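To: structure desk
From: M.T.
Subject: fold request, one chain
Message: Could you run this one when you get a chance? Sequence is below, nothing fancy, just the single chain.
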Amino acid sequence: MKALARYGKSFGGYRMIDVPEPTCGPEDIIVEIKAAAICGADMKHFRVDNGSDEFNSIRGHEFAGEIVKVGEQVKHWKVGQRIVSDNSGHVCGVCPSCDSGDFLTCRSKVNLGLDNNRWGGGFTKYCKIPGEILRIHPHAIWEIPENVKYEEACVMDPICNAYKSIVQQSHFMPGQDCVVFGTGPLGLFSVQIARLMGAVNIIMVGLEEDVKVRFGVAKELGATHCINASKEDVVARCHEISGGRDNISLVVECSGANIALKQAIEMVRSNGEIVRVGMGFKPLDFSINAITEWNISIIGHMAYDATSWRNAMRLLADGKIQVQPMITHRIGLSEWEKGFEAMANKEAIKVIMHYDFD
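Reply: Done. Structure tokens follow.
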């Protein structure tokens, strides 16, 4: 079968290669991929080919499909079930994170479809769900409700990230205002969760290149205002919309940009919270003393847990979370470069790929 693989240890390029179909061990499950989405984590390695011939992984950690084979020791899953993976491939099972069911913060975690995993991800035809993860973490996969499409289920990862960051990690209350930095899927799903949580003003902050496509979708999904940070004073504008600093209790920072974190600290109220969902790799060049001066909490965010998945799946099945407005491109895996280009140029919000080599 064909598979989109990444090469190199730190940053490296993509290649479409031939790989053998996965074999099914006694505890394993084999899934035929029906939909897989390009994520921002995949984009980090696009256009940065370092010429390495060192195989890293078959990519694609946002995927959903149908079970086509189960090992003889598998009891709770059967051929024909529609499932979505939370992309867990390996955890230690004994650390404090694993003890509490927060498996994606296990220091030994290995994700399907991300770096240096030996099982592969969703940018191919078949994926193995290893029995060892199901033994420790039974909810590494979830059955998809009948009324939910594969292309909707495959983006449960960013939905659950948004759910956990606001619902489970913050102390946000109905009647308050929420600011969301970043117009990608994490930001747009955060807008929807903030709407469900009863936010009065939901302010989306993006850049000039977001105006054409993403601002319109943000407003469709619940953003009350969109701010173009390329042209506007973000902090002043947020205070103007909210009637002053005191109503901005939560900032969800999904961009990873240092300037966004700086502006978040400047705009949030005393005793407010900033959940940092996005990642940036440059050192900070500004003081964060204000978080002490005004008792501001900066909360680091990583992934989700079974509570996030259970509740977010119910919201998706009930139509309270919308995915379709965010799917801008549907392409075959053979056209993967077109999808990555559309993401890089911000012509796309979510690109869904299906296997088309047969």
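Reply (cont.): Residues 13 and 48 are 6 Å apart (CA to CA). Let me know if you need anything else for the meeting.
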